[in-house]
Amino acid sequence: MGALLTLILVAAIAAAGYAGGEITGLRTTFGVIIPYAGLTIFLAGFCYKVIQWAWTPVPFRIPTTCGQQKSLPWIKAAWIENPSTRGGAVVRMALEILLFRSLFRNTRAELHPGPRLIYRENKYLWLGAFVFHWALLLVLLRHLRLFLLPVPHFIYVLNALDAFFHVGVPTLYLTDVAILAGVLYLLGRRIWDSRIRYLSLPADYFALYLLLGVIISGILMRYEWKVDVAGVKELALGLAAFSPVVPAGVGAIFFVHLTLVSVLAGYFPFSKLMHAGGTFLSPTHNLANNSRAKRHVNPWNYPVKVHTYEEWEEEFRDKIEAAGLPLEGK
Q: Cα separation of 61 and 290, whole Å?
């Protein structure tokens, strides 16, 4: 039910964007006001979340590790699996962010007749996430040509590599295929896998449907429903320079795409998509595990009145002597 309701909601947002592109009086609202609102909410929400996480004290070392911690000199330590230095933690973080290292080791448990609990590798999730995230990054970099003038040379190089096979007219981008396949896999496993579907919330489907809507509308603009690219760039440059002008020749499909992007941007800081910023501040990933070499004291510990053993012994000295028990202070 949650998947269906969120699909209807995203379809309604897309329909509103289409209407905003078709009705002349709404073009400024959907072409300028909504994008600025989405960007403002995104920046404010993202900064608020990051600052909130950054100011949260982490007095103890709680990295998630799966290797030998550094201890005695003759015991070989796993400097990446269980880093004891800042350099090792940086390498571990880089592998996590760039290659999704922990997801690569993902396993799934299945209960078979017997009963037998069997663990299997699950590399499909890693592959789907890896393809989707890297394709998304490349697509975002390609879109910089709409906001920059002159366009940096590396954007042209990136476009040439993305259209390496020169399939079709206009040329098919490899990232278009990859990002669509990646998000369809992530959405499909959430719908068809009963265990994941049981744990899924409407918010999980909403983010995926928004991404799917953005991707499909972008693909339709390039390969099916043509738009005035010069007009799109004029609008993009105007938005970037805070002097927006909505050209008359920009088609309604572009407003669908822009509306979905704006809603996704505004929703981003309040969703699980914020893992994009949170992964850098996660103490389970970014800390060196040096708890054996250094004592970490909780900085917000308030003074506590303690009753030392010496004080306890003095308080009950007569009873201890009467019982014939030894006294340390005697």
A: 7
Give me the DSSP letters along 237-259.
HHHHTT-----TT--HHHHHHHH
Label residue 94 exposed, middle or buried (CB < 10 Å: 0-12, 13-18, 19+): exposed
Q: What is the dihedral of CA 263, 266, 270, 272, to 10 degrees?
A: 60
The token pair that represents 13 in the structure block: 């947002």
Closest CA to 292 of 70, 76, 59, 90: 70
pLDDT at 329: 60
What are 143's two structure tokens?
A: 């879109």
Q: Answer whether the bond into residue 83 is a cis peptide, omega within 30°.
A: no
H runs (alpha helix) in 23-85: 27-28, 34-54
Alpha-carbon distance 221 to 202, whole Å?
Answer: 28
Structure tokens that stand for 4 in this block: 């269906």
- Using one digit for the tens of pLDDT, what is the confidence trace for 24-79? 889 999 999 999 999 999 999 999 999 999 988 888 888 888 888 898 889 999 98
pTM, 2 dp = 0.86
Exposed/middle/buried for residue 197 (C-beta within 10 Å: 0-12, 13-18, 19+): middle
What are the structure tokens assigned to 226, written together?
A: 């043509």
Where do the H-state alpha helices sit in 73-151? 86-99, 101-104, 123-142
